[in-house]
Amino acid sequence: MRMTILAKRTMSFVISGMLIGAIPELAGTPSTVHAQEQIRLEEMTVSELTEGYNSGKYTAKQIVQAYLDRIEKYEDTYNAFTFMNDNALQEAEEIDRLRGEGAELGPLAGIPVVIKEAVDVAGFPSTFGWAPLSKSAGGIELMPAEDAPVVSRLKEAGAIIIGKTNIPAFSATGTHANTSWAGPTYNAVDPSIAPGGSSSGTAMAISGNLAVLGIAEETGGSIQNPAAAQAIVGIKPSFGLIPTTGVTPLAGSTRDVLGPHARTVLDAAVMLDVMAGYSEKDEKTEAAIGHIPEEGYAAAVSDQALKGKRLGLYGPGWRDSELSAETAALYEQAVKELEKEGAVVVEDPFAGSGFKEYVKKTGNVGMETFFYDLESYLKNLNPEDDSLSIPRVFEEAGELPWVKGGPLSFMEGRFEDIDTAITDAKKTPDLTEFNEVREEYLRILDSVMEEHDLDGFVYPQMSNRIPKLGEGDIGATTVPEINISGLPLITVPAGYYENGSPFGLAFFGEMWGEAELIAMAYDYEQATHHREQPVLIEKSADYTDVKPNSPYFPAVMSLAAAGAIDADQSEFLPNEPISRAETADIIAKGLHLNIPDNAGTLLDGFEDISSEDEYAGVIAAVYREGILLGGSDLFMGGQSLTREQMASVLVRAFDLPKLSNSPHTVVMTNVKTAHKEDVMILAQHGITVELDNYRPQDTVTRGEFAAFMYRAMGLQL
């Protein structure tokens, strides 16, 4: 009887809250999909979509609608977007019409794409991610007159722009988007850890399967950091390969680059083929002429590319910063995987090269052109508007971002006199000093590659695991060196830390060497397939005290979706002790127990509760099932629950058996005899991860109970 009831409880939970466990979700199902097929969007690639379009399996409009449905479901949690394209469905319809007429279509026809907020799209405001420049946040509005060249290229290739994605103010951090006027973006893999920046929203949209491809941008880590942090592929190209006109600058004349975010190396290469190349609107791209493969970057992929390749490894010759023990172990495993594919690795090839000493001597250069680049950007934003200059725009905005406390306060140390720099912003900057530094970087790198006969380098993208959101910065191993040198880099998923945060590898090499790096990264990706699809969490309640980065967020949202807790309350109070009566309420509702008709009779033996009490029905339900018992004549509903008592409650609620072959054990110090077996069962099933310090006598908080029940329910799926 009990197993039958449990099976029914579990089925109800699965139906009401598809949030626990890696359950493949079938996204929005438009009524027009033939044969009533559901469209599975997760991990969809460009080639799969294109094949589906060509075969008539589905239309671009159906796919775009399905992505919009998925965004509507998860955007409240992750906050990836700043603006949505209201014309996306009409644009998809036009692609369908052209395909139906047999027209020749571009390589991205019907592919949903997202654009980083820093990149101009006609019809969408340019906000810099900063509240004073965002009309939506009460600031002023800057409206670009035309698309950035790279956006024009995507549109010409047939891409459907879904929307623009979130960034920190002025794209000024490589860790998060917390300073954005639109609020923080949360990591698709784990909302409690930093999403990487500044292309935070693009990475989330791609990793979370809210789009297929995305534009990212980097001055110092902003393509590679969020890509590695959210287990996707990011290509930071050679400086000058892709036009950056129409991009809000930090170092537009020296370091800023645009690049693709994708879930696979091949998709990133397909997007790079569209983005790369000379543009008359950006003289920096003249340097790319003659350096783009005739066949394109996608044609370079090969699952044999690593065979015989010589790759330099991270070491103290590059930088003094040591890798954390866990990063070093993951890196060691990745190196073994590379060697298995035929690569030959060279330890610390920069040793004795003088590279790190030169980096320390010259510092983090390149942003000295900021005011010139900003003035140029504003002038090009709308050439017919004479008011678009630094003094007038920021006077109207009412704030200056480069003063103390502003998002660009670090600029004060880069200029002798900011007022003079603004006055001289129209003058072409002298790049002699910066170019000398870049040339020396490249000279040393070329000499190291020649000395060791290297084809490239492969480093851990980060020196440590990703920090919790708001608790530190991401430590990239190649920033700012890769940005000052202007070299290309591609990051690819390479595993996960013990806490579940992603670990990535960064392949980099000589200038214009994207094709070779893409080929090697593709070989590694195909040999390992480390990326795991994130399971997104739908925001089913809007508690002010349980944000997406709270450790209790997944559990609380799941219980709210299951009807186990009241989703209409403004607070959940996760740090308050949970009472026995509240425990009964959550269990009864979460497992969908029926309230007994004879509740009053069942509770007759308890002097401290009557059938009229608020929790009487649910207490009777769990008491009848033998889940939560009382004393001889008292139920003690107002008393808090200890952690060892909770173990017994959960074991009874879910009929958890004792396991004979579990690898987990738990220290039983101070656990009362009556609860020892139940505490051990929780550990055996992995419901408790505090094996060395279970703290059996501690009071259980509401958040802790939600987390434990969430894990127990997950076992039943």
Description of the molecule:
By secondary structure, this protein is α/β, with parallel strands linked by helices. Among the domains are: 402 residues, Alpha-Beta Complex (Amidase signature (AS) enzymes), CATH 3.90.1300.10; 56 residues, no CATH class. It is 35% helix and 8% strand. It contains 23 helices and 11 strands. An 11-stranded mixed sheet has the order 1-3-2-4-6-5-10-11-9-7-8, with helices on both faces. Helix 5 links the parallel strand 2 and strand 3.
Q: Which regions contain 5 or more consecutive residues with pLDDT less than 50?
A: 1-36
| Main pleated sheet | 11 strands, mixed
Number of helical segments?
A: 23
Distance between the termini: 19 Å
Write down how many β-strands occur, each being a DSSP E stretch of 2 or more residues.
Answer: 11
- Which structural category do the helix and sheet elements fall into? alpha/beta
- C-alpha-based Rg, rounded: 28 Å
CATH-derived topology of one domain: Amidase signature (AS) enzymes
Globally, the shape reads globular
CATH level-four homologous superfamily name of one domain: Amidase signature (AS) domain
Highest-level CATH class of one domain: Alpha Beta
**What is the arithmetic mean of pLDDT?**
93
Topology:
Elements: H1 2-16, H2 46-55, H3 60-78, E1 81-84, H4 88-100, E2 112-116, H5 149-156, E3 160-165, H6 200-207, E4 213-218, H7 224-229, E5 233-236, E6 257-262, H8 265-275, E7 310-313, H9 325-340, E8 344-346, H10 355-362, H11 370-381, H12 390-397, H13 418-423, H14 432-452, E9 456-460, H15 481-485, E10 489-496, E11 502-508, H16 514-528, H17 553-561, H18 580-590, H19 599-602, H20 616-624, H21 643-654, H22 673-684, H23 702-715
Parallel strand pairs: 2-3, 2-4, 7-8, 7-9
Antiparallel strand pairs: 1-3, 4-6, 5-6, 5-10, 9-11, 10-11
Helix pairs in contact: 3-4, 10-14, 17-23, 18-20, 21-22
